TrEMBL record, chain A:
It comes from Actinoplanes utahensis. It is an enzyme of class 4 (lyase). It catalyses: (1S,2R)-1-C-(indol-3-yl)glycerol 3-phosphate + L-serine = D-glyceraldehyde 3-phosphate + L-tryptophan + H2O. Keywords: Amino-acid biosynthesis, Aromatic amino acid biosynthesis, Lyase, Tryptophan biosynthesis. Tetramer of two alpha and two beta chains. Pfam families: Trp_syntA (PF00290). The alpha subunit is responsible for the aldol cleavage of indoleglycerol phosphate to indole and glyceraldehyde 3-phosphate. GO terms for molecular function: tryptophan synthase activity. GO terms for cellular component: cytosol. This is Tryptophan synthase alpha chain. Belongs to the TrpA family. Pathway: Amino-acid biosynthesis; L-tryptophan biosynthesis; L-tryptophan from chorismate: step 5/5.
UniProtKB/TrEMBL annotation, chain B:
Belongs to the TrpB family. InterPro entries: Trp_synth_beta, Trp_synth_beta/beta-like, TrpB-like_PALP, TrpB-like_PALP_sf. It comes from Actinoplanes utahensis. GO terms for cellular component: cytoplasm. The keyword Ubl conjugation does not apply. This is Tryptophan synthase beta chain. The modification N6-(pyridoxal phosphate)lysine is found at K91. It comes from the Bacteria. The keyword Ribosomal protein does not apply.
Amino acid sequence: MSISETFAKAKSEDRAVLIGCMPAGFPTVDHSIEQMIAMHEAGCDVIEVELPYSDPVMDGPVIQKASDIALANGVRTRDTLKIIEAVASAGATVVLMTYWNPIEKYGVDAFARDLAAAGATGLITPDLIPDEAAEWIAASDRHRIDRTFLVAPSSTDERIRMTLENCRGFVYATALMGVTGARTSVSSQAPDLVARIRAVDPELPIGVGLGVGNGRQAAEVAAFADGVIVGSALIRSVLEAPDRATALTDLRALSAELADGVRTGR
Amino acid sequence: MSVESLPDLAGHFGRYGGRFVPEALIKALDELDAAYRSAKADPEFQARFQDLLLNYAGVPSLLYRATRLSEALGADVWLKREDLNHTGAHKVRNVLGQALLAKRMGKPRVIAETGAGQHGVASATAAALLDLECVVYMGETDTQRQALNVARMRMLGATVIPVTNGSRTLKDALNEALRDWVSTVDTTHYLLGTAAGPHPFPELVRDFVGGIGVEARAQSLEQIGRLPDAVAACVGGGSNAIGIFHAFVPDAGVRLYGFEAGGDGVATGRHAASITGGSVGVLHGNRTYLLQDDDGQTIESHSISAGLDYPGVGPEHAWLHDAGRAVYEPVTDAEAMAAFQLLCRTEGIIPAIESAHALAGAAKIAPRLREELGRTPTIVVNLSGRGDKDVHTAGAYFGILDQAETLVPGENT
């Protein structure tokens, strides 16, 4: 299912989409595939695969640690594409999140082509703003990859408008001024940012990320957003598990809790 | 477009530079850009900046004819004595400019990243002087090899946070500073330490340190009677080099040489030579040359000099390299340390190990220029910093510390 179809389906069910994030190759290629499929089966509507990167400036300690582990275990860009293929084949809607340099190194057009061939429907670019994205916009148009850029509470209305014009699929609203990582409470800036986005474009689905870690928070965000993005809390359940079986059990349990959350918020 | 008029309004030097950062930072960068443009045009701001440089930092620094070094190298070597500035390096120019800018923007807190500790010390100094809160991020590896500078920063009232991610060096300190900034941007100015990062930093830092070249050019005309044949500087992120190069860029007869940290040798893979041993990519907010693997993952850099131990380089250097206006070459640890010792013994000046790379480079180009010109070449070397902070590293390198001293870094320096 494409991102747009996924959001449309959730809307018809009067609920928000749950987007669960997991770094590719964390802790190993096979285990990350297993984790992503478990998340999908337990209720994540979209699997956001994060390509591990050496300098993830938008990420807090949990994702940094998971990325470091994946890289230390030798994950390569081509492994990430294989992981996407496996997870998409299992029926999940897959988007990739990556810092820009690995794509530039791979070759922008070749990456868009191979990403589409692997079955991903979209790409989230945390450090690529539309102002610098001419090459990506052309390549993603050619290979029909949805583009998700970020907007932040600090974004001016003019920048929100410009960013939305360049997005396709959904826009990523960063709920607070900060890096990824679960917080004890949901940011009070998020509803305001979502309202500002809707005022510019009432149609484009809005995913809200940063700081959501449990079902209650997912429900809170689902009350005003189209999608709830959860990363660090899911990853932490793998990082903190004493063994594989527990990791998968905990991951399924948290995914299910979050999936309940996005259904009870409205 | 001529080299001197770069960057364009979006911060591009040809294909280099730009802004590759999370959207959350764009507003702060736009505000910084606007504040900088208005400060640049404000005579009061400029007067305050010049006053601090002159009466506080000891600028303009001397252009010193190094007679005994000249004999040793077979060139007429002049040293731009940035090591004599307050805090011991060119960095003071940048931090005073940016700290004044922070005040102007009404931001009470500054954060900085530091490698060798020079920029951290300079930032802590400017923050103390201008009554700003200061937090410095420093890779844990660097806090160990530059313990004296950590103590200096703390004495000046700064908080030093050792960074334990990744390679625990300058690049990771920069990542951590960016993460801090994303969360604190309303109250905090990121006092970036080199002419790299997202626009407008490469331009702004270049302009604040650009006095080095303006002074060196005027001093050359006055003291030498003409412009030098070559200007040499070390290049890590590249602020001291762009600072001395910029005023000479329009002077076609002046060769510009940037010497990168070659570590164990570029061929060994253990180096910090982004231009001569790296490739084009995006790191820390700008497109430039960097050390990366086939997947675009940053490769750890290696250098005996903490201040050059960085896997990227400022975008204007990338542009000057491609345009052929400046020449970049690697200098190994061993070559730099030989030059370090030579300057100590011939001139009674202990240079920063960073600056020793520029001296070693001058030694390399001297015979080439002599042949090319058919006469003794005149070379201006940017002596960007003093070596007090490196006494422990150099003492250990040359084996002139006894066992007890080796165990207590910095205590007797």
